[in-house]
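Q: Could you fold this chain for me?
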Amino acid sequence: MRQNYIIIFFFTILLSSCSSLLYYPSRNLYVPPSEIHLSPEEVWLPVEKDIQLFAWYFHTRQSNSNTAPKAVFIQFHGNAENISAHYMNLVWVLNQGYDLFTFDYRGYGRSSDVKPNPQNTVEDGIKAIRWVHQKYPNLPIVIVGQSIGGAIALRAAYELRKEIPILLIVADSTFLSYKEAGSSVLSHSWLTWPFQWLSYLVLSDSYAPGNHVAELAPTPLLVIHGSKDQVIDFKLGEEIFAIAKEPKEFWKVENGRHIDVFSRPDFQKRLLTKLDELQKSKRQFFSPRTR
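A: Sure. Below is the predicted structure, expressed as structure tokens.
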């Protein structure tokens, strides 16, 4: 069902030549944190005049007066719904000593009612990362971008590469190019398959991550993609890994579907192990050139 919605989406884009229709925001409250006994801090991020982003900051369940969080996860969610439908994908990190920050792009949830597009969603991502870093300057940052949120996260991280240190960037089920992603989605249905070529005409990659991914080094990059991803082709994840520079790692999720990797306890454990190794190594992963 979700795949059908996305196919309809991209088909509509091709007919209208409007890149803003990449996004499918909702104002609905899907899973209130109170239902799972969580009380996140509500955060309002001013982006520009009359535009604010709404976010939740979840503090780790393992924190106490003597123990600081290990790091904070910043979640860049996908193109549909809002944070109340996505935070559950990463809420498990709260039991492992990590904080979680998740925000809505403009037009989503309780954020300002402005149409999102490739440019302003990257601006929103930059604002979110800066807010977390300014609020908790000594807390390592782990960025997790999922689906279209991965493309936004990769570009935002590139824009901030000289300014803010990142412990790890996780690109989950995502892509380098909106043009290629549109073609990929259209290829999954016999109805839209003949129109794949149109995505290269009507979608813009001006604010896609593209070749800029190569400039994220030396920040570590983890690319994750399901071999059975029904929305974003597996090969698009491989393209990210191919263009990235070391340090980088690729996790193929055998029989994995779209952004389902962190529903699997073995991959949760694998990510936690990787983060422990990064923090224990005492490496300087990022040296801002402006400092």
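A (continued): Helices lie at 2-16, 83-86, 118-135, 148-159, 178-186, 199-202, 234-243, 265-280.
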